[in-house]
Amino acid sequence: MRVDKFLKLSRLIKRRTVAKEVASQGRIELNGRPAKASTELEVGDELKIRFGQTRLTIRIEQLKEQVRKDDANTLYTVVKEEKIEQKQAD
């Protein structure tokens, strides 16, 4: 399953077009490497997503083509959620 589709189905990002934009901005990593929206995921992969000043690390638990809203959070496990320090210009 593609990264952008997974992010939409898991409800981590509401729209697939937004997921594509986030990926094109270099804010998504798959297993430590930059990921494109079209990168294929597998169960067990680790995905890091940067939302503003927060970096969310998740592990892919399931890949389903359809998922109910109430079951969306079963597709992944949050490994770590961390705040990113804002770099100040000198």
From TrEMBL:
Q: Cite the CDD domains for this sequence.
A: S4 (cd00165)
Q: Which HAMAP family match?
A: RqcP (MF_00871)
Assembly and binders: Associates with stalled 50S ribosomal subunits. Binds to RqcH, 23S rRNA and the P-site tRNA. Does not require RqcH for association with 50S subunits.
Family assignment from sequence similarity: Belongs to the RqcP family.
Gene field: rqcP
A Gene Ontology molecular-function term? rRNA binding
Name of the featured protein? RQC P-site tRNA stabilizing factor
InterPro entries, alphabetized: RqcP, S4_RNA-bd, S4_RNA-bd_sf
| Free-text function comment from the UniProt entry | Key component of the ribosome quality control system (RQC), a ribosome-associated complex that mediates the extraction of incompletely synthesized nascent chains from stalled ribosomes and their subsequent degradation. RqcH recruits Ala-charged tRNA, and with RqcP directs the elongation of stalled nascent chains on 50S ribosomal subunits, leading to non-templated C-terminal alanine extensions (Ala tail). The Ala tail promotes nascent chain degradation. RqcP is associated with the translocation-like movement of the peptidyl-tRNA from the A-site into the P-site.
What's an example GO BP annotation here?
Answer: rescue of stalled ribosome
Q: Where is the RNA-binding S4 domain?
A: 1-64
Q: Which Gene3D superfamilies did the record assign?
A: RNA-binding S4 domain
